[in-house]
Design goal:
Mean pLDDT of chain B: 88
Low-confidence stretches of chain B: none
Shape of chain A: globular
CATH topology of chain A: Cytochrome C Oxidase, Chain A
Number of domains of chain A: 1
Largest sheet of chain A: none
Distance between the termini of chain B: 40 Å
Strand order of the largest sheet of chain B: 3-4-5
Mean pLDDT of chain A: 90
Helix content of chain B: 25-40%
Structural class of chain A: mainly alpha
Shape of chain B: globular
Oligomer: heterodimer
Number of domains of chain B: 1
CATH architecture of chain B: 2-Layer Sandwich
CATH class of chain A: Mainly Alpha
Low-confidence stretches of chain A: 1-8
Order of helices and strands of chain B: HEEEEHEH
């Protein structure tokens, strides 16, 4: 048995609560907006993936929602993990608005791409600068690291991939305005997406899971070799697909990434099998569902990377893959972790000095569990319905599924609003 | 004069806000000593990295300090011996989903 992955959430080193809170609030609004836009433009969610509305949806999902939340969470957690101060609170505070301007500009331009892509360059540069500022802020904080552990290693890899994805995104954005890249724009897009999902998001999901899952499930004694092996497999796989991109070959190294992600699933199983907290609360239920979607999306991603024939079926697989990754893996994990982290941060801010002196709420009292369970089950139904609709290419079923996920997003937003506006007493 | 039993009763009002179970039933309180208004509490957390350790240990101190006859309270947070689930009461185990 090895040393377990344990952790902490707040220390004197953490940045001001209101800075991190802004990230969570803006991202939650982006999530509801995404669900609403997809519902009211459901007819665009079909066919070829390189089309303006779909690109807008994807970028609201991965940049406005998921990456925004991760930025806020890293701003809070990285100083805690390293037991040091954030390099710059000012960058964290103002970087958010620069990033938001860039993301809003990118998604707006994608939405209107049919009318011309001339302005894409300026918004791509804005988003790129905001991401590089974030990477620099976290990177300069990480410079003070005293001891490397599995979470720190994953975070270092994750921010390096984020910088790489942003660079490719900038090149693609500039190319839409000035058309200077040699070769097919879509090949660059494939690498941009592959590094985004397999590099940035995978490293974050894996690293954060090793930190928070044992802490929330009270799991202490388990083998850790699958986690480390998964890290190396995924990273060697990503380097492999970069080489294959340069050589113009299909992404055969995706097999290594898939093997790494399956090993990660095994590591999660080991952690959860040894947990002392048998009952899964709302946060952990969402998190477990995210892990459930991971093998499905891994197999779909592998199929997309290796397949060459029957473009119609492959095209359908790309749509299902994109939806399942964003709404299955990433969103369920983000919502699960938000149900654990956000109530704790608000509780700590408002009640930690009142324990023992007066009655204080439990973390589960910070929001409506009933509403939480309702939106959990709505998402649990809505996401597979949309995937099924995309699979059989039935727009009505897709619209029904999106209606369910939109209602679910509103209920989630209501619960987060309840947490943030919780009054003392 | 304040008794150990009274102190444990006061500590039962200090809950782990994440788990929703009080620190006595969780088995986090290892030792309570009382003498001339001075109270010594030795306790632990479920995990060394517990994010709530400061809130809970200060909460325990405040809960006991409010008892009549208590003048000084010292809470000693220890990690050895490490907490194990066997230290929980049957009621606490049931709350965490143990059959």
């Amino acid at each position: 048995m090895s040393t377990p992955f344990s952790g902490n959430l707040t220390t004197p080193y953490t940045p001001p609560f209101k800075v991190v809170r802004q990230y969570f609030i803006v991202a939650t609004i982006a999530f509801i907006l995404l669900n609403g836009l997809m519902l009211f433009s459901y007819q665009y969610i079909q066919g070829y993936h390189f089309q303006p509305r779909l690109l807008a949806f994807v970028h609201i999902g991965v940049l406005g929602w998921a990456t925004m939340i991760i930025m806020g969470a890293m701003t809070q957690l990285v100083p805690v993990i390293l037991e040091t101060s954030l390099y710059s609170v000012r960058i964290a505070r103002w970087g958010l608005w620069l990033y938001l301007a860039g993301v809003a500009g990118i998604t707006g331009h994608f939405w209107l791409l049919a009318g011309g892509a001339g302005g894409m360059a300026s918004v791509a540069i804005t988003a790129f600068l905001a991401i590089i500022l974030f990477v620099a802020n976290i990177g300069l904080t990480l410079r003070k690291v005293k001891t490397m552990n599995i979470t720190v290693v994953h975070i270092i890899a994750a921010i390096l991939y984020l910088a790489t994805v942003a660079t490719f995104g900038l090149l693609l954005g500039l190319n839409l305005s000035f058309s200077f890249l040699k070769g097919n724009h879509l090949n660059y897009l494939a690498l941009h997406a592959a590094i985004g999902f397999a590099g940035w998001f995978s490293m974050v999901i894996m690293g954060v899971s090793y930190k928070l899952l044992p802490m929330f499930s009270l799991s202490y004694t388990y083998r850790t070799w699958p986690g480390w092996t998964a890290f190396w497999l995924v990273n060697i796989g990503i380097l492999g697909i970069i080489v294959e991109f340069i050589l113009g070959n299909p992404f055969y190294s995706a097999v290594l990434i898939a093997a790494g992600l399956f090993l990660f699933s095994y590591q999660v199983w080991l952690i959860m099998a040894g947990r002392m907290r048998k009952t899964l609360d709302l946060g952990l239920r969402h998190t477990m569902l995210a892990y459930g979607y991971l093998p499905i999306t891994t197999l779909l991603g592998l199929y997309i990377a290796l397949s060459h024939g029957i473009p119609v079926i492959r095209q359908r697989a790309i749509l299902i893959f994109g939806f399942a990754v964003i709404f299955g893996c990433i969103t369920f994990l983000v919502i699960g972790m938000m149900y654990k982290i956000v109530p704790f941060l608000v509780w700590f801010h408002k009640y930690s000095d009142k324990v023992g002196k007066e009655k204080v709420p439990l973390l589960k009292d910070m929001f409506s569990e009933r509403i939480g369970h309702i939106h959990f089950w709505l998402s649990n139904i809505g996401v597979p319905v949309v995937m099924g609709g995309l699979f059989i290419e039935n727009q009505v079923i897709v619209a029904i599924g999106l209606t369910i996920t939109f209602i679910s997003s509103l209920l989630f937003g209501y619960n987060m609003f309840t947490v943030f506006t919780k009054r003392q007493g | 004069m304040v008794s150990e039993k009274l102190i444990l009763t006061a500590l039962k009002h200090v809950l782990d806000p994440e788990i929703g179970v009080n620190i006595v039933d969780l088995g986090l309180v290892y030792e309570v000593k009382v003498g001339n208004g001075d109270v010594y509490i030795q306790m632990t957390m479920t995990t060394p990295g517990c994010p709530l350790h400061e809130s809970i240990s200060k909460g325990a101190e405040e809960a006991v300090r409010q008892l009549p006859g208590v003048e000084n309270v010292k809470v000693d947070l220890v990690w050895e011996p490490a907490w194990t689930p066997e230290r929980m009461s049957d009621w606490a185990k049931k709350q965490l989903g143990w059959k």
